[in-house]
Write a structure and sequence with these properties.
By secondary structure, the protein is mainly β. Helices cover 9% and strands 46% of the residues. The strands form 4 sheets. Strands 4-14-17-16-15-18 form a 6-stranded antiparallel barrel. Strands 10-9-8-6-12 form a 5-stranded mixed β-sheet. The chain is elongated, with a radius of gyration of 32 Å.
Length: 350
């Protein structure tokens, strides 16, 4: 007669569970289903979509912040307010009454632009000039006489000297319109080059989650997540950015921590408009298997000859059937094997 001999550990994604080690017996027993006692506790094989999910703490805000750094020495004559939103052509701040103007572009400003200059930053400048209504030049990566003429018109409109040259520090390239997060410089104070003036973010609310390095499997770019808001409602999100950050040690006797920072984009901005900052819960789906056969993990038995099985019963007889395991999630395990179908009754060992 077959019987459970001892318990062994089953390690799987999503946690550990226990299984029973059994011998499937000799050939005569294997052909005689009645040789196995009928299990007392049973469940049915279910066909379902199985998801390996995990919920982590997150912070609703405006995503990561960037720093606007002064490029020339002078006196701060204008700064914006924290929380203020700025768009293309707006003055971000002023040094010696000369504005630093917001323009859109992925490449930061890093040099002086004048006739003869070529590159992506020139293309960005010309795209912005065109968007602001200036004409007479070809939008490309070459700074020509025609580009300089358009720049002079722009400088005249800003009340600046019409040099036709874009000096380093006179523009701030950002990916889009921005929101001032905090201001470090004060009006009237002197400021040297390479000193921070303010920090800024985008204007779209997003969720930031810092995962432990061991949970990196959750951080898949463009993966869908669910964000639970403070009012009890949930909104859909998508992983927009994944990066590694180092958290400095809090004391000399501790080591720095490596975290995986995840930025989650929220499509329904109206649903999160009530909060400029809030604690939220983010549910990640690490793996998903659609329309698979599953049983509770507790139904698995470890076979003496290797592998796993389940005890199949018709209510009067039972037998152990080898199965292949797949995804483990939410206390369930994906299985497949000969004779295993949705609705099959299996035992759950005590």
């Amino acid at each position: 007669m077959r019987k459970a001999l001892t318990a062994v550990a089953v390690l799987a994604a999503g946690g550990a569970a226990s299984a029973f080690l059994v011998s499937r017996g000799d050939t005569s027993q294997a052909t005689n289903p009645a040789a196995q006692a009928v299990p007392i506790n049973t469940t049915k094989v279910t066909q379902q979509t199985l998801k390996d999910t995990e919920t982590q703490d997150g912070t609703l805000g405006f995503g990561t912040s960037s720093s606007a750094v002064n490029r020339v020495a002078g006196t701060v004559t204008a700064v914006p307010d924290s929380g203020q939103e700025l768009r293309r052509g707006s003055t971000v701040y002023s040094i010696d009454n000369k504005p630093t103007t917001l323009l859109y572009g992925a490449l930061p400003s890093y040099r002086r632009l004048a006739i003869g200059t070529e590159g992506t930053d020139v293309l960005q400048l010309e795209q912005n000039l065109k968007a602001m209504g200036y004409t007479g030049f070809t939008v490309d990566d070459e700074y020509t006489d025609a580009t300089a003429d358009a720049v002079e018109e722009w400088q005249e409109d800003l009340g600046l000297d019409e040099t036709g040259v874009v000096e380093l520090g006179s523009v701030l390239f950002a990916p889009g319109h921005l929101r001032v997060d905090s201001v470090q410089a004060e009006e009237g104070s002197p400021l040297g080059p390479n000193q921070p003036v303010l920090t800024y973010t985008g204007t779209t609310r997003a969720v930031t989650v810092q995962l432990d390095a061991a949970d990196q499997r959750l951080a898949t770019l463009n993966a869908a997540v669910t964000v639970a808001l403070p009012d009890g409602k949930s909104v859909a999100g998508k992983i927009q950015k994944v990066s590694t950050v180092i958290i400095p040690a809090e004391s000399p006797d501790k080591d720095p921590e490596t975290k995986v920072e995840v930025i989650v984009a929220v499509a329904d901005q109206k649903a999160v408009a009530a909060w400029s900052s809030a604690a939220v819960d983010v549910t990640f789906t690490a793996s998903e298997r659609k329309n698979v056969l599953t049983v509770p993990v507790a139904a698995l038995v470890a076979l003496r000859e290797g592998g796993f099985g389940v005890e199949v019963t018709d209510g009067t007889t039972s037998r152990y059937v080898p199965v292949r395991t797949g995804l483990f999630a939410s206390g369930q395990v994906e299985i497949s094997g000969t004779g295993i179908t949705a609705g099959t009754t299996v035992g759950i060992p005590k």
